[in-house]
Amino acid sequence: MNANGENDVEIDFGLHLANRHKYFPPRELMKYAGEEIAFSADGTRIVAHGSDFLTLWNELKEAGVNPHACVWSSVPPLDGVSEL
Amino acid sequence: MTLRYSYSPYVAPNPVISLGGRAERPRPVIPVALIGPGGSVSRDGLLDTGADDTVFPAAEATLLGLDLSTAPTGIASGVGTIPYPVRYARVRLRITDGQERREWEAWVGFTAARLRRPLLGYAGFLQFFGANFLEDAEVVELTVNGKYPGT
Known about the structure:
The complex is a heterodimer. By secondary structure, chain A is of the alpha+beta class. Helices cover 30% and strands 15% of the residues of chain A.
């Protein structure tokens, strides 16, 4: 942590990605299509998911979970739309 | 030293015709932390050589402790979409692949327009790296260049 204390959590993205790819293959993430996901810092768990990033952020805070210690990701909807 | 990331595969609802019927689309999506006076937010962003700027959702600016009310403003547009305002702020960005860690300060755009995911574009991100997109291996390598201002 730095001067921002618990609001700046430095996450080891290397470990995070290794675990995320291991525990959450693409087919698994299909369940969350169109949603925002908060992954745990170590990438082994989905801490929260839902349609709105800010709502999830505030829900985590209220539940005593530090949202700064999560890695946030948007799972694209399964609409077959090519991204340009 | 080089940061190395595997592409992230995203399941397609139907076989992707343009990829010979493949079931997934691989994309160079990597996690990045934005750091402001109020803290950090770690989030996936798309390395996008076609994006002029690095752009994140405006909702994150507040969480970073940024006041965008007097921030410089620009206009941006995606392919086939209407222009939308972008407000710019100086923030720190941090990336690591577990082997190498980089942190620098740059201009980042924030927009209320709906983004599929944050864009890691030229200004603020790719301008500071040599980016080697190894499409056969579905890997991207980032090597800091002479413009890199950080640590």
